[in-house]
Amino acid sequence: MKNLLIGLTALVFLAASPAPAGEGVTPKLNMYTTYKFVFPSDFIPAAPFAERAGISYALVWEGTVQGDLDGVIRWWVEFTGTGFTAMGRFELWDCVPKYPIDCDYDDPELLRMAGYETFKYVTDVDWEGKGIVTHANAEYAEWYGRRYTDGGYVEFDGGLPSQGEGWFTIYDKPSNKH
Question: Within a 13 Å sphere around the CA of 4, how many CA atoms are in the beta-carbon half?
């Protein structure tokens, strides 16, 4: 009986003790995005980081991101010379998340993270993407190689995309593809 009582007391103590900081915690970054269609962008040069050889990018969407990270987000789409593919890249910038967007894209210190993705439309107005963070500045280095998903919806004006909103989530799971 004494051993049972000691065992139950130990279980109660263990259950009441919190886990050490960070143990069993799954970090991720959740953000809400708003974006506007900015193509044609005259093929503004993309920020310098490891590029896929021979790929041209067109800036298609630019917007704000708020949540675990606040700033500006840009989506670029691969351009083959004859049209767009379902591949692209994103950039998260350390700029004020409000319209009109005012960000010094020539300052590489403001680029927090970037990466590549594939995306698709799941309805006529809803899209989803997934990719890998392939660039992270020193402050966000722990997020390098992490998987992310994004998506949302697009509003059309006169048959052309105009704006939308959605989500952007970076997971704690590293990719085996970087």
Answer: 1
Query: Count of alpha carbons within 13 Å of 80, Cβ hemisphere only?
Result: 6
Q: How many residues does this entry show for the chain? A: 178
How many angstroms separate the CA atoms of 34 and 93, rounded? Answer: 14
For residues 132 and 149, is the Cβ–Cβ distance under 8 A? no
90-107 average pLDDT score: 93
How many helices (H) and strands (E) the chain has is answered by 1, 8
Residue whose token pair is 């915690």: 25
Instruction: Give the separation between CA 59 and CA 41, rounded to whole angstroms.
Output: 6
Lowest mean pLDDT among 3-7, 74-78, 103-107: 3-7
